[in-house]
Amino acid sequence: MALQRAEVEAEILKFVASRCPNYSGLGRDTDLLEEELLDSLLLIDVIYQIEERYGIKLGGEHVGPVHFRTPGTIVDLVLSQAAPQA
């Protein structure tokens, strides 16, 4: 069963928001680095959540600003890793 972008996005936003309760403007394009929301603990929590929730194993090549800058880029990562590999 293919993951639906809207569902994954809602789950990622909810998860990140639960870890950043003092930040009210969270959206799919919020720059987590610029807003200083993404620290090492949140990064580990998000990776763990992705691996547990979606059954995806992320390697070192996936852990970096390009994939974790915004909730939208995190969703893109999840969808790209969950896609069937040909």
Automatic annotation (TrEMBL):
Name by which UniProt lists this protein: Uncharacterized protein
Organism expressing this protein natively: Afipia carboxidovorans (strain ATCC 49405 / DSM 1227 / KCTC 32145 / OM5)
Cross-referenced Gene3D superfamilies: ACP-like
InterPro entries with a match to the protein in the record: ACP-like_sf
